[in-house]
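Model: Ready when you are.
Researcher: Fold this.
Model:
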Amino acid sequence: MFEPLPSLQLWPYKIPRSRPQGPSKPRPVSLESSLVSVSPRGSESRGADSTLTRLDSRLWPSLKAVAAPQQLLLSENGRQKGTKMNTHLKLALLVASLFLSFFVGAAIFQSIEGNLEYSRSSSFFDCYYYCVTVTTTVGYGHVTPTTTGGKFFTLFYALVTIPLLVITLADIGRKLANLIGLAEAKVLGRVKNRHLRFTMIVTVTLLSGVVVFLLIPGAIFTALEEYWTFMDGFYYAFVTLSTVGFGDLVAGMTMVLGLNESASSNVYIVALSMYTLLGLTWPATLWVLAADYLYGSKGTEQGQEKEQKTEDVAM
């Protein structure tokens, strides 16, 4: 029998480098390599290789099973970040398009109606406020088109901007409903009754909206508008945000009619339009919450289940 070779001894054979040109020729098997295969050292190396192969075949599925949830969590987080960026960009574009439509519509409406002596839409900001009332379907009636061109423009403008506003309010309402759903999961997570949770969330959202969008603006309108009582301001805020818009009370009426034209009056008109748009997000959020509760759409309820699954995978 051959003597076993030292374990640390390196074989003196050199591996020839592959030539870049010409087909490679099979290397002849030498007698020494054949002897290595039958030597104890050769059998020991083959045994070690087979042991490593068996160990690798057993460990690799276990490692994959351990790493799979983490990989799933990372990929899910990456998809969520990309989706959030896309939704934020979409919402920013919608809001920018909405305000751009106000300014462009005001310029066009002023060019059509502003040159008439008996027209109330002589100022650019008067026309701007008119476009806001058309888009939000409030329609106070304090500024109206008087020419045929102005009426045709109003028809076309309403057909374009009203759907744009509906889409924008739906996206904003969805985002606010998701935020409310996260707060619900943290604050009311221990409440198991789904109907009780929905009642509490809607009650808090409704009362908060009454304070933020009706009571506080009503007090502000009472202070800014002459001869208005608090009931008048509260009534005007409710009629505006419900898009009823009777037109019996209109904030900034003296400014819109040109009786008080100044920089502050223009700022007041823009502030009124901002209040109207922000206030409409409140009923939109309530509608989304009601739709999630009644129809089980992909809202707060499924968002909580998805979040719970993600937390379970992470654990």
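Researcher: Now this one.
Model:
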Amino acid sequence: MKVENNKVVKVHYHGYFPDTNEVFDSSLDREPLTFTVGKGQMIPGFEAELLGSEVSEKRTFTLEPDRAYGHRDETRITDMPFPDFPEGIELGMKFQAEVNGMPMPFEIISINPDEGDSGTVTCDFNHPMAGKALTFEVEVVEITLDESCNDPGCGCGN
């Protein structure tokens, strides 16, 4: 069986930034990652690079930002009112806002308090890995059918 849409795939992976070799994530010390191909659960390039692979197959690939978390977007950096934040905020702290009912994580990149109750906090809503190339070493551990796709009305095309 090969990796293709609507297959449940288990993989072990080791991910690092190719410019520094810094590891950003790895499943090697825990259970394999499980996802259903074609359901939007993974970054686009990750799935695309695994299509056609078989159990025990190992692949190493580098994803440029447009196939991973996208490019940094300076319009996603915005100032918010200082009084909207709790006391004791610090640079690098991560928070989550709700925008149109969706969670939007962000990082504080600048704190500009003024006298009294004014001032701003500069927040970066870009994904932390936006703008970065990512290298993955992946081994396919298991491939199974997505049991939820047995219903002809599920929309999977089976």
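Researcher: Key takeaway?
Model: The chain has a mean pLDDT of 91.
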